[in-house]
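Continuing the series of single-chain predictions for the mutant panel. This is the parent chain; the variants come on the following pages.
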Amino acid sequence: MSGFSTARQKMVDGQVRPSDVTDIRILDAMLAVPREAFVPESKRALAYLDLDLDVGEGGSAASFLIKPAVLAKMLQAADIKATDRVLVVGAASGYAAAVIAKFAGQVTATESDPALAAKATAALGRLGCGNVTVRAAAAAEGDPAGAPFDVIVLNGATEIVPERLCGQLRDGGRLVGVFAMARPPRATIVTRSRGDFGHRALFDATAPLLPGLERLPAFVF
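Parent structure:
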């Protein structure tokens, strides 16, 4: 077993399984997808650590792969079906999209940095992820032309209720992400039912804020 393969197994056994992730599809996907393939060469030694890993390069804005256990727990709560159409918002270099592609029907991934979106497309292509499409788009914008989606996954945190994204859910659809409107931040699931939206906190979690989903600064006289 190679060094990265060993690290991948340790990530699943030491970070993901102890976080009460029991969905075998998620565990198998995380064992199968080489996380190092979505990390710059200079940071590949960090690929399997329990941290939010900045994969931006060359002076670009920070873009992150969120902690593996946080991603896995949110995916388990989203209960993605084999026929579901999934939108990944703030996809960074494409790792979350690659994992989801192992057990979803179709995946669309958006990334606000066009250069990073191109790198995600290349990485996903090298791994043969034919059911993933990457688009350069602001996080708050989503993919209205591709809506509605069965599941929307925020690959990061939001400080505002992402109403535009929630509006791109089909009836019965689910949005999961880290909601940082209050302290402590909590991973949250939003479910659409007959035009109404229900929110349920899942677990305490932190993740880097997605650009465009920050709270606007209050006006001070």
